Amino acid sequence: MSIASFSKTVLHGYFRSSCSWRVRIAFALKGIEYDQAPVNLIKDGGQQFTEQYKKINPMQQVPAVEIDGITLSQSLAAIQYIDETRPGPRLLPADPVKRAQVRMISDLIASGIQPLQNVYVLQKVGAEKIQWAQHFIERGFQALEPMLKQTAGKYCVGDEISMADICLVPQVYNAQRYKVDVDQYPTIKRLNQTLLEIDAFQVTHPSRQPDTPVDMRT
Ligand code: GSH
Description:
alpha+beta; Glutaredoxin; Glutathione S-transferase Yfyf (Class Pi), Chain A, domain 2; 4-stranded mixed beta sheet; binds glutathione
């Protein structure tokens, strides 16, 4: 066994960051233990902008994962690495059609919605930030709803939990945070409710993390 195998797994994240939550869910589904190193995206003008953190993730965003002697930023790359190197339930299905559908849904959220409503972008937008966030989340959900109607069984793609589910739940959390009416999207709403009953989604919830402020804990 290499030295890297003995190194500690560390997640640099923020309780309310949807991309950090994605990685927490993947760790929980696979039963992987890890340490959390909180990076407060708001305090001190944003701890992601410190020189120290820039060495960990030059993009100055969370999450970043230290695992097996390497550091991975980009939540989907980290999730896929975890999936490919750890036992436990597959996060990407073996079937090529289902795997493509999982990637399609994950990319729609990770490239087509979340980047347009992340903190950095909203700060640049200024006064219109809430309307801006709502617009792009709704635009994405209008595309996601008919797509999920085609692919979903119990979960986003068929009846197995996948990376698509890992992306969906934190994005719905963001939608609710920006007061998007999720009732307009019955498939998204149903999937979110089903997934939130699962332990791996509950223990990793933003309201239950080491850096969750006391008044936001449940
Ligand atoms: N594509 C990246 C990923 O999936 O990891 C996006 C990372 C990202 O946007 N992270 C947000 C962040 O760090 C939190 S969810 N925002 C703070 C900022 O941009 O200053």
